[in-house]
Amino acid sequence: MRMSLRNAVLVLLGAAFVLSLVPAGFALDRRLVGDLERRSREDLASAPMILKDRNAQRSETLVMHAQAVAGTSGLAEALAAGERERAVALVMSAPGFPGEAPVLVDAEGRVLVGPAATAGALPPAGEDGATGFVDEETPMAVALARVGGADGTHGWAGVSAMVDEALAGTLAGLTRSDVLILGMDGDVVATTLGPEIATELGAAARSAPDSVIEATSTTGARYWMVAAPLGAVASVAFVRGVEQELAVLPNLRTTALLAAGLALLLALAGGFLMSSYLARPVEGLAQAADRVRGGDFSAPITDSGIKEVERVASAFSEMRRSLAARLSDLEDANTALEDRQQRLTALQSELIQRDRLAANSRLVSELAHEIRNPVANVRNCLEVVRREQADRGASTEFADLAIDELLRMHELAERMLDLNRPAGGNSGRCSAAEVARQIAQLYHAGAEETRWPVEIRENGTADVAMPPDALKQVMLNLVENAREAMPDGGPVTIDIRSRGDAVRIEVADLGAGIDDTVLPNIFDPFFTTKEGVTGVGLGLFVAQGLASRYGGRIGAANRAGGGAAFTVELPVAPEAPAAPAAPADPAGAGGPTPGP
Ligand code: ADP
Question: CA angle, 223 as apex, 221 and 225 as ends, to 5°?
Fold first, then answer.
């Protein structure tokens, strides 16, 4: 499963939070419950002590009240005189105390006022007063004080206080618990609890020692109880409901849960901000990497305040820079390779062309050799025959025709031989401009200058790496073709210019130009569009053969303003250490003579 960095951080935070908080929450809850229970039980365990203290205080109060009753004026006298009714009346009319009733006992121990059980509270002989609990059925607290003087004891007077619901309420208030007061027979005397639960818990309370015990009611409610004696006539059980004691827990738990939820939300919000801060530069890096795939190496990279991310970003940046440099090197190398490949292909096809040309040339030369001599012999014979038969009309005409045809065959053979004619004594270099001037001179010598003037333009003086005779042969073929393209006359231009390591010679005319359909074939051997003896279709073939033999080439094109232009490109001759070559014979050692 894949997730974004932001989600991963959030999930991590949430998981860490839950994993750490939930067990801690449970432990805290356990501890809280334990502490609450312990404190509550300890508190409850102190209830008997409180009861004891309260009893002591109460006894003192009761004794004081008893002394007050015993000191009622006239009581001692009435008792001493045996006037019981008066004594009873005096006690009954004495000011009372709330919740207490007067008690009067005569010297013989007869109870004159108060419950009969009061007699059980009489102090031992010699004591002035006593206090205690009496009557097991309806327990009560009694305090008695001696009535009499130095002349002896006349009786006992005091107060009694019932053990009832009021006492239970007071004890409950003091001990912050419910109170259950049981008589010695186990009956519930007074309680702050409901009657049913009081009866139910009464049984357990009777067996309760003075330490805290836990009891469960029939409804499943749990209670803690501790019991303490109330004199010898009753016992008090202090009761606390466990649920009530722990009632604060649900609220605490809800508060804790809310606080935890809020903390989780805050942590997630913080995590979101943190992960955004973390993820933004990483996201920027991912986008830049995507753009690198598309060839864009300049996508911006976001800065990060996190050291590790910053290190990755700068490493990525460096990697991207070197990748771009490598790519550019590779592209350059590729272009160079393509260039080389193209040049190689061109060179290859040129080599093949040259091979073919050389083979053709050899064949043509051999053929020409074989043809030229017999043709010359036959022609000579026919010349003789024509002279002999000069007066015989028809046969002279046929002889002329045969001689013309033989002339044509001779011309053909001569041109074929031109192709492989050795350079003779000429050096391997010459000035193209010089050769052009020689050709112009040839035409000046004839009567052609006015009809076909030859114009020479020069730009640069570099020599070409070709013998002058061979160059003259090439130029003569082109100039001758130009003249033939302009039967009514016109200028022939020879433009010569140096271009780096080559010399470009352009021979142009103002004729009809070359038909597009024949343009691809004009350099083929025996291709001609001319009729008669002039067109044997070898002029351009021979010129191209010579040019390529010396590392040059010839191209043909139609001029925009009309006419054709032939371009010869020849390599520049290397620097000559010796004196420049002697100019070639203007008559042309092996070339054809100009003119019709
Ligand atoms: P030939 O001159 O004997 O025909 P070439 O090889 O010299 O043989 O020329 C071949 C053909 O090229 C010519 O027949 C002609 O159709 C065409 N050609 C050559 N030069 C020119 C030119 N200057 N103008 C028009 N066509 C030309």
Answer: 160
Same domain for 253 and 144, yes or no, is no
As given in the structure block, the two tokens for residue 166 are: 């009021």
3-state secondary structure of 466: coil
Shared domain check, 63 and 11: no
Same domain, 99 and 114: yes
Cα 313 from Cα 301, distance rounded (Å): 7
Within 6 A (CB) of ligand 1 lie 477, 481-482, 485, 509, 511, 514, 518, 522, 527-530, 535-541, 564
Q: Is residue 317 part of a domain?
A: no
Together in a domain, 38 and 50: no
State how far the alpha carbon of 387 is from the alpha carbons of 392, 398, 399, 402, in Å. 10, 13, 10, 14
Ligand 1 atom with the shortest distance to the CA of 481: 20
How far lies 26's CA from each of 32, 262, 409, 453, in Å? 10, 18, 124, 120
Q: Are residues 40 and 153 in the same domain?
A: no
What one-letter code names the amino acid at 431?
S
Cα distance between residue 224 and residue 402, in whole Å: 157
More confident residue, 562 or 295: 562
pLDDT class of 582 with cuts at 50, 70, 90 = very low
Please tell me the predicted confidence (pLDDT) of residue 392: 63
CA distance 81 to 376: 210
C-alpha 528 – ligand 1 centre gap (Å): 6
Cα(481)–Cα(494) distance, integer angstroms: 13
Q: Which of the listed residues 364, 419, 479, 481 should we mutate to test ligand 1's pocket, taking the one with most ligand atoms within 8 A of CB?
A: 481
Maximum CA extent, the chain: 227
Whose CA is closest to atom 27 on ligand 1?
Answer: 514
- Could you tell me which residues come within 8 angstroms of residue 250 by beta carbon, excluding any fewer than 6 positions away? none
Residues of the domain holding 511: 425-571
Do 32 and 164 sit in the same domain of this protein? no
Task: Give residues with Cβ within 8 angstroms of 106, minimum separation 6.
Answer: 79, 84, 87, 112, 154, 155
**Regarding beta strands 454-459 and 492-499, do their DSSP bridges make them parallel or antiparallel, or are they unpaired?**
parallel
How does pLDDT run across 357-415, given as a tens digit for each residue?
777 777 777 777 777 777 777 778 777 777 776 666 666 777 777 777 777 677 777 76
Q: How far is the C-alpha of 263 from the C-alpha of 276, rounded, in Å?
A: 20
* 219 and 90 in a common domain: yes
pTM above 0.85, yes or no: no
201 and 255 co-located in one domain = no
C-alpha 424 to ligand 1 mean position (Å): 28
Query: Of 278, 293, 322, which residue is a domain's last?
Result: 278
Q: Is residue 122 part of a domain?
A: yes
Q: Does 330 have pLDDT greater than 70?
A: yes
In a domain, 370, yes or no: no
Name the residue of 478, 506, 531, 540 whose CB sits within 8 Å of the most ligand 1 atoms, as the mutation to test its pocket.
540
Q: Does 591 score more than 70 pLDDT?
A: no
Phi, psi torsion values for 356, nearest 5 degrees: -60, -45
Q: Which of 191, 223, 245 is the last residue of a domain?
A: 245
CA 89 to CA 78: how far, in whole Å?
Answer: 10
Ligand 1 pocket test, candidate residues 416, 509, 528, 542, most atoms within 8 A of CB: 528
Please give the distance of CA 381 from its chain centroid, rounded to a whole number. Answer: 101
As a whole number of angstroms, the distance between CA 185 and CA 137 comes to: 8
The mean pLDDT value for 446-467 works out to 83
